[in-house]
Design brief:
mainly alpha, Tetracycline Repressor, domain 2, 2 domains, 9 helices
Length: 193
């Protein structure tokens, strides 16, 4: 991607996240975003159809940044990968916008695109690590299972008041990855291979 395009998109994403921390997302306008980003309105519309499309892109980008690191995770490790903690820390820092986007009155477009992006990241991770923990399951089913669990935990965690710390949510997600022990490659004693 052209460096200018990348800079413009990054500036718009950062402006959206910053504004959403200062005021309710519903009150943030495209004018507010372009003013904060230091770009003109026509530049905004060259990249995004509307504020919702920018939000979907921004959340996908954050997931992608975490996903690149998650592809290298060790599914047999008892400890969750640092990238998972970094991603949830990002979500926690931008909790207001994530809670609105993924909550019951959130955007179907944003939720759908984020779920699809997470599924792709999980699928890539399973392929990179081998599918031994998911033997007998089609790749799409294994990916959907991990994605659905992760997405559901994030959505529920965001709605909790008080919200538990990031490390608690990370532990919940890591535990949900395949087995009750929380480790993809191990099984409970007496429960098969």
């Amino acid at each position: 991607m052209d460096a200018r395009v990348e800079r413009t998109r990054r500036s718009l994403q950062q402006a959206l996240f910053a504004l959403a921390q200062e005021q309710p997302y519903d009150e943030v306008t495209v004018s507010d975003i372009v003013d904060r980003a230091g770009v003109n309105r026509s530049s905004f519309y060259q990249h995004f159809a509307d504020k919702e499309t920018l939000l979907a892109f921004a959340l996908e980008t954050a997931a992608d940044e975490a996903g690149v690191q998650l592809a290298d995770l060790d599914p047999l490790s008892q400890d969750p990968p640092p990238a998972l903690g970094s991603y949830l820390t990002h979500i926690q820092s931008n909790a207001a916008i994530y809670a609105i986007a993924l909550g019951p009155r959130g955007s179907a477009l944003v939720a759908s695109r984020l779920r699809a992006r997470l599924k792709l990241i999980v699928r890539t991770g399973i392929l990179a690590q081998g599918s031994r923990p998911f033997e007998g399951l089609p790749l799409d089913i294994a990916s959907a299972s991990v994605t659905g669990s992760t997405y559901g935990i994030i959505e529920t965690w965001l709605s909790m008041d008080p919200r538990p710390p990031v490390d608690v949510a990370v532990a919940w997600i890591w535990q949900s990855f395949g087995t009750p022990s929380g480790r993809w490659g191990e099984r409970e004693p007496g429960r098969g291979k």
